[in-house]
Amino acid sequence: MESELALVRDDPWLTPYTNAIEARRDRFSEAWGTGLRSEAQLHRTNGLLFDEENQQWTYHEYAPHAHQLSLVGDFNNWDNNAHPATRDEHGNWHLTLPADTLTHLSSYKVCVVGDNGTHHRLSPFTRYALQNEDTHEFTGTVWHPKETYQWKNEAPPKPTAPRIYEAHIGLATEREGVGTYEEFRTFVLPRIAKLGYDTVQLMAIAEHPYYGSFGYHVANFFAPSSRFGTPDELRAMVDEAHGLGITVVLDLVHSHTVKNFAEGIREFDGQEGYLLHSGPAGEHEQWDSLLFDYGHPATRGFLLSNLAYWLEDFRFDGFRFDGVTSMLYHHHGDTTFDHYDKYFYDGVDWSSVTYLQLANALIREINPQALTIAEDFSGMPGCCQPPEEGGLGFDYRLGMGIPDHWIKLLKHTPDEQWDLNIIWNQLSNRRFGERTVAYAESHDQALVGDKTLAFWLMDKEMYWHMKKGDENPIIDRGIAFHKMIRLLTMIAGGEAWLSFIGNEFGHPEWLDFPREGNDWSYKYARRQWSLADNPKLKYGGLQNFEGAMLQLVRDHKVLESAPAQLLNIDQENLSLQFERANLIFAFNFHPHNSIADYQFPTHVPGTFRHLLDTDQPEFDGLERLTPKTLHHALDGHLSAYLPARCAVVFEKV
User: Fold this and answer.
1) Is 233 a catalytic residue?
2) What DSSP state is assigned to residue 292?
């Protein structure tokens, strides 16, 4: 009998796994039907909050194994016995305090007496934590200004094919230091909007004790990082983005948490396993971090409330879920996904699968226009199908194999040996109905130990030969390939596009956060915007081309259209042509073979106009083509001049 699941109908290979997919759907339906929305409101009750209605402070915390909890801080001289909480039969602790007990910016912690001793801890629901510059200790800090932030702008409509700018607030400044929400709001957001991006994906927002972790070792899930400014400055930044028509996505880390005892949630109630797995199951050896127990109701409530918190209190428009592959499997992705059995049988963490389904359902209930993206390299079927169909519920999946392929190609294969069939397969091989975010490089490729595309292509020559008029074959090759690789990836690789901050203009060097190994230097933890803005340098040409690509896909709705259709692969001439959104894209990757009157097949007869090419002078190209030239498609073929290391876009007149 034919399955009622669209997921199975769309992919016949899934037919043997119909029962497993139905079970996945049923587990979600059962969990969602238990009044989960109320579970996801802990941010309204837990932690230290001011009760406006009753004009008093309230403190609530779940700590079932603790012997005693009390609130300590500068308001009571850190006296462990001054303000004890009382415990109910469910392991929840409660305390109320008069309104004048604490004030804006009061310091506080929780004194926890448990099996592991007596310790001053940060509440798991800490909303703001400041770090002492001398001791480096984080302390909970009351954020209760006299006036609450007044929002000015409505969020823009959900982008139909997001053009995503991945960014880190701290390194978004040119000065050697930590950038701020205010600097990002006033300087970077206008650049993003001017370039043509409609979405910004923000990293490292949740508080993390080690700056160099890139924000992926989170300690305080409800606290915006104070390194970059105050909670209201973050709100103002999101508000400004909305005013510029930019959707704001949070890079969310629910896949693990930092091991740190002092700052994190580890053994908060005195025993191992607080919200986390106990024993070996609770440790991620590769990441040196701890793992959540997604099957525990308290964990589920904590994480789902965290989603609601960022959506409601800071008006984020969605999430990029980090480490989804690690969440989905007990082996955390340490296998080869060479058979469908591996998606449905041994190794799958079904509690995590259900959590991700619930998370996506909750996000849609709070904000139907929200955007969710999964960082999953396993290819789990149904990643981008609704939970009601047995899917996980994401809008998009990151095309993680694409940047890995480009880097591997640049590292190991001479230009003349590039296999265009393999490249095309890497870009076009996507599961039916699964929308993909294509990208040629992200923060992963920018980190020290790897190189950006620009640095793989041009390396040290960038230090000496990026002046306009300076002829250098390595730079000429690098600039040409940088544009061609990004254009090909954007158009053929998916239904959305992502670029990491600065890569649009070929930012040189790598990313390296201050650490002991570099004498705590910020030299490589910044963005040199002046390079792109200097009219004497070639970086501006790469930036101009990025803007032209983004305008092309916006004006012609390229990423919203059906996937690209291959027209021709000519391995001898390293030439590739394909159609998408009624446009024709022609690439010549050959190092030196420019082809006059090159003929390739096209599905559409008629006259075509030369719309865009990578060789234009404003893109620091060699200006070998004449824009707006007309080309006639006769007998099912289009004839055009294709210069070496150049890409051309044609539209039908």
Assistant:
1) no
2) B
CB 576 within 8 A of CB 569: yes
Q: Using alpha carbons, select from 623, 632, 624 the residue that is nearest to residue 650.
A: 632
Helix (H) or strand (E) holding 200: strand 199-203
Q: For residue 517, give every residue at least 6 positions away whose Cβ sits within 8 Å of its Cβ, in sequence order, or none.
A: none
What's the predicted TM-score (pTM) here? 0.96
Confidence of residue 447 (pLDDT cuts 50, 70, 90): confident
Q: Shortest CA distance to 311 belongs to which of 387, 363, 380?
A: 363
Distance in Å from the first CA to the final CA of the chain = 49
* Residues in CB range of 87: below 8 A, 6 or more apart: 66, 69, 93, 94
Condensed to tens digits (0 to 9), the pLDDT of residues 113-140 reads 999 999 999 999 999 999 999 999 999 9
- Kindly state the average pLDDT of the residues 537-545: 97
What pLDDT score does 103 carry? Answer: 97
Alpha helices in 314-433 (DSSP H): 324-328, 341-344, 350-366, 401-412, 420-428
103 class by beta-carbon count within 10 Å (0-12 exposed, 13-18 middle, 19+ buried): exposed
Phi, psi for residue 609 in degrees, rounded to 5: -105, 135
Which tokens hold the place of 346? 């041994």
Nearest to 349 by CA among 386, 392, 287: 392
Average per-residue pLDDT in the chain?
Answer: 95
C-beta neighbour count of 172 within 10 angstroms: 24
3-class DSSP state of 508: coil
Is residue 651 annotated as part of the catalytic site, yes or no?
no
Query: How many whole angstroms from its chain centre is CA 306?
Result: 17
**From 61, 317, 349, 375, active-site residue:** 375
Q: How many CA atoms lie within 13 A of 425 on its CB side?
A: 5
Let me know: does 543 contact 532? Beta carbons within 8 Å: yes
Q: Residues 6 or more apart from 89 whose CB is under 8 A from it?
A: none
> Kind of pairing, strands 92-98 and 56-62?
antiparallel
Give the DSSP H or E segment for 129: strand 129-131
Specify the 3-state DSSP secondary structure of 275: coil
Question: Is pLDDT above 90 for 27?
Answer: yes
Site of tokens 């996904």: 337
Give the angle 142-146-147 at the CA atoms, nearest 5°: 110
Contact status, residue 462 vs residue 508, Cβ threshold 8 Å = yes
* Secondary structure class of 97 (helix, strand, coil): strand
DSSP state of 159: P
Q: Compute the distance between CA of residue 430 and CA of residue 327 in angstroms, rounded to an integer.
A: 22
Rounded-to-integer distance, Cα 279 and Cα 287, Å: 16
DSSP 138: E
The label of the residue with tokens 């000015």 reads: 152
pLDDT digits (tens, 9 = 90+) for 324-349: 999 999 999 999 999 999 999 889 99
Catalytic member of 322, 349, 389, 579? 322
Beta bridge partners of 575: 570, 588
pLDDT value, residue 1:
40
Tokens of 62: 């779940």
Which SS3 state, helix, strand or coil, does residue 222 take?
A: strand
Rounded Cα–Cα distance for residues 527 and 183 (Å):
13
Nearest residue to 394 (alpha-carbon basis) of 325, 338, 486, 314: 325
203 Cβ neighbours under 8 A, 6+ residues apart: 166, 167, 168, 169, 214, 215, 251, 443
Residue type, 222: F
